Amino acid sequence: MSPLEHSRPWTAPTATARLDARVQLPGSKSLTNRALLLAALADAPSTLHRPLRSRDAQLMTAGLRALGADIGEAPGDGRFGPDLVVAPGPVVGGASIDCGLAGTAMRFLPIMAALGDGPVGFDGDPHARKRPMEQTIESLRGLGVRVDADEPRLPFTVHGTGGVRGGELEIDASASSQFVSALLLVAARFDEGLTLHHRGERLPSLPHIEMTLAALRQRGVDARAIGEASWRVEPGPIGALDERIEPDLSNAAPFLAAVVAVGGRVVLDGWPDGTTQVGRLLPELLAPFGATSSVADGSLTIEAVGGEIPGATLDMHAAGELAPTIVALGALASGPVEVTGIGHIRGHETDRIQALVDDIAALGGSATALPDGIRVEPAPLTGGPWRAYDDHRIATAGAVVGLRVPGVEVDDIGATAKTIPEFPELWAAMLAGELE
Hints:
Layout: H1 3-7, E1 10-11, E2 19-23, H2 29-40, E3 46-49, H3 55-66, E4 70-74, E5 83-87, E6 95-98, H4 103-113, E7 119-123, H5 134-142, E8 146-148, E9 156-159, E10 167-171, H6 178-187, E11 194-198, H7 206-218, E12 223-227, E13 230-233, E14 242-244, H8 253-262, E15 264-269, H9 282-286, E16 292-296, E17 299-304, E18 312-315, H10 323-332, E19 337-340, H11 352-362, E20 366-370, E21 373-377, E22 384-386, H12 392-402, E23 408-410, H13 423-432
Helix pairs in contact: 2-3, 2-4, 2-7, 3-4, 4-6, 6-7, 8-10, 8-12, 10-11, 10-12
């Protein structure tokens, strides 16, 4: 599908039979962008096998190149493009970096830029200027780094002076675990490392912080939790690594939820034996809706009878990025579905709670925003517009609803290019029962 076709309204295909498909997905966005950053700070070149090739990854790659890394391509072994070879270099200043709408780029790269030798400007898409950035700016200032910002959000300029002392720092990461991960990822390059404390009412998406710590330890960094909301990274070298990136398990959410919506079976290849990805929670999140799961020979199989979808109440504070998919199932359910613990997703690519409420209402459904979540009541749905709001998770949620509701028109399926550019083709192949 061409970029022009992606920009037109996309009629979500309605399932005409139970599913029986095998799916392969491109690499994890979260793992790819962590691996890219660490490779750019390492003490020797690294190779990333099967990295994600998407807008978020491209923005991270471009930002790292602007900061001095040499990133090239090498032949890959899969259907999703070449491998990446990252040769680190001295961190440099004097650049302007476009973060697009990528949370990892806008939170990770400014901390790295503080190691450079001059000013680095950061900006992004129009909605990026609404995303929470106060903790990035205040963290850098707390570390003694000058940051010029008219407001606590993009655009701003980081003035690197060749190094960061580090030491001890307190932040409030209630709005995003990315504020913690950004500091931990770079902290080994601080003169004194970093002891970091979160002080806030909640800490969303803790699995992403566990992913960050694991990525650091893989490269020989002494990085560990020292309390429920405190972490320590010792100063020292970051080792080079040849790494195979796991498939993106969060992007698996709509494909696995499709089985709940219409019944049948989907086999997802490349399911890791052990992983820090949030998507590992999908089997247990889908179980209350009637799905059964099994893992064998590196593949996850999800099966469901289909038909009537029961209601459920779920606390998803650890897996907020999966909530749009679960809410989409709620729009199709025969009983109320309430998802809580996700207030922080108001500050994601869009206000995801309000976007889902508005989209479901546009199809005749009944959804209510809660202080920390969303509740969906059973209601008959009809076809109509489904706005993506430039958000890949909202776009794929519309695809899930469209499996049962003819005529759902997603206004911008191209938003999925943020993390899974091949989504429309993979979705069609799944419905056709093709082996991927």
